[in-house]
């Protein structure tokens, strides 16, 4: 749109008027982010002023991304921050209400533990006055769809969104110490995960379907053992590794089936931490050994399947390095530092979620 062309505003008046008549919501989001030629801030300010008048004409409150923040706009608009807490706090200081989206992007594949501890009233907003804090309305969980399909979208949304929902609907982190108890959050999130299954959501059932298609068989034990400790990479990693991907690229590989926030990796990491704190616990030692034995032998079980299926070729290096570092942990006298370091870095478009815990077990470094 050309902000200098009066006909643009005639069109927007008709368009916004039609949309306002269809939806009863009090707010109208105008976007406003990532404007081309950002040097023309005065022009964007002029454009937003004209749009705000139109939105108000149809009895709506204007909302927009944090790039629209400008003292020339009336104080009744709402600023939505995708760039970070700093712009949210600045909007509140200037007298604007705001919503935090930064940090809640599910497509960035952050674990529930990290999402849970983000607070719209934390960071720069913590130093706001009581009056300024009251202008922060809350947060918004985001699910962008560059790498989701109808088959895997629910695994990207659930169950992590349940943890964020509790975050939004609870007192601030400083008000309730329990909100910092990530272990208890995961305990309860596992319960909610089962309840979501009962409601008919398919984040777990579609996982098995995708693995069966990858394996070309219903016998997926070995592939599942690998996928259970594999997490998809975030947006930037996938763009970097596979820059030719488009919206038409099939989402049917290991990275697409693997789920964020591996429960198996979390359980194994907990076992390792407890064992390193008490090396005399025979039960912990036994369970850790069972997991390592499973993973050490898993690549041999998967090798033929991977060799015979082109769609599984991306799984080969992940499977190999998992078995190698698991074998190292079973025989720590044969440490290969290069393999340990490689395992903790992205492998193609995925992360090996148990790599850090295995490295910690081998080196005894409790600072990890």
Q: Which tags fit this structure?
A:
7 strands, alpha/beta, 5-stranded parallel beta sheet
How would you explain this protein's 3D organization?
The protein folds into 2 domains: 6-147, Glycosidases (TIM Barrel, Alpha-Beta Barrel); 217-363, no CATH class. The chain has 17 helices and 7 strands. It is elongated. The protein has a 5-stranded parallel sheet with strand order 1-2-3-4-5. Strands 6-7 form a two-stranded antiparallel sheet. The chain has helices at 6-22, 41-57, 85-93, 112-117, 130-133, 153-157, 160-168, 182-198, 205-215, 221-227, 235-241, 254-257, 263-277, 282-308, 315-330, 337-343, 355-363, and strands spanning 27-29, 61-65, 78-81, 97-100, 136-139, 230-232, 350-352. α10 (221-227) crosses α14 (282-308). The mean pLDDT is 93. By secondary structure, it is an alpha/beta fold.
Short description:
Helix content is 51%, strand content 7%.
Structural class: alpha/beta
Average pLDDT value? Answer: 93
Distance between the termini: 51 Å
Please indicate the percent range of residues in DSSP E strands (runs of 2 or more).
Answer: 5-15%
Gyration radius, to the nearest Å? 25 Å
The tally of domains stands at 2
Number of DSSP strand runs: 7
Helix content: 40-55%
Gross morphology is: elongated
Low-pLDDT segments, ≥5 res: none
Strand order of the largest sheet: 1-2-3-4-5
Major sheet attributes: 5 strands, parallel
H and E order = HEHEEHEHHEHHHHHEHHHHHHEH
Number of helices: 17
SSE topology:
Layout: H1 6-22, E1 27-29, H2 41-57, E2 61-65, E3 78-81, H3 85-93, E4 97-100, H4 112-117, H5 130-133, E5 136-139, H6 153-157, H7 160-168, H8 182-198, H9 205-215, H10 221-227, E6 230-232, H11 235-241, H12 254-257, H13 263-277, H14 282-308, H15 315-330, H16 337-343, E7 350-352, H17 355-363
Parallel strand pairs: 1-2, 2-3, 3-4, 4-5
Antiparallel strand pairs: 6-7
Helix pairs in contact: 1-2, 10-14, 13-14, 13-17, 14-15, 15-16, 15-17
């Amino acid at each position: 749109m050309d902000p200098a062309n009066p006909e643009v505003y005639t069109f927007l008046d008709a368009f916004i008027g039609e949309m306002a008549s269809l939806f009863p919501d009090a707010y109208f989001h105008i976007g406003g982010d990532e404007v081309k030629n950002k040097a023309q801030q005065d022009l964007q300010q002029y454009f937003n002023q004209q749009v705000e008048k139109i939105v108000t004409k149809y009895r709506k409150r204007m909302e927009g991304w944090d790039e629209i923040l400008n003292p020339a706009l009336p104080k009744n608009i709402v600023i939505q921050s995708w760039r970070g807490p700093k712009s949210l706090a600045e909007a509140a200081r200037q007298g604007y209400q705001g919503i935090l989206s930064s940090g809640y992007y599910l497509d960035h594949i952050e674990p529930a533990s990290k999402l849970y501890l983000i607070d719209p009233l934390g960071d720069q907003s913590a130093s706001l006055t009581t009056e300024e804090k009251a202008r922060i309305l809350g947060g918004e969980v985001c699910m962008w769809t560059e790498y989701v399909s109808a088959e895997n979208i629910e695994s990207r949304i659930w169950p992590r969104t349940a943890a964020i929902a509790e975050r939004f609907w609870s007192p601030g982190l400083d008000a309730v110490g329990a909100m910092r108890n990530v272990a208890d959050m995961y305990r309860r999130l596992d319960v909610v995960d089962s309840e979501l299954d009962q409601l008919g959501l398919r984040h777990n059932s579609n996982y098995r379907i995708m693995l069966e298609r990858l394996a070309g068989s219903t016998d997926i034990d070995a592939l599942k053992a690998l996928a259970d400790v594999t997490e998809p990479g975030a947006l930037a990693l996938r763009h970097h590794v596979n820059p030719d991907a488009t919206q038409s690229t099939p989402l049917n590989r290991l990275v697409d089936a693997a789920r964020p926030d591996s429960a198996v990796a979390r359980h194994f990491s907990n076992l390792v931490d407890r064992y390193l704190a008490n090396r005399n616990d025979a039960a912990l030692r036994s369970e850790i050994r069972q997991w390592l034995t499973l993973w050490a032998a898993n690549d041999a079980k998967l090798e033929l399947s991977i060799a015979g299926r082109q769609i599984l070729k991306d799984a080969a290096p992940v499977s190999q390095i998992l078995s190698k570092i698991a074998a190292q942990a079973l025989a720590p006298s044969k440490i290969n530092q290069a393999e340990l370091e490689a395992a903790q870095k992205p492998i193609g478009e995925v992360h090996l979620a148990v790599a850090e815990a295995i490295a910690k077990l081998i080196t005894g470094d409790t600072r990890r």
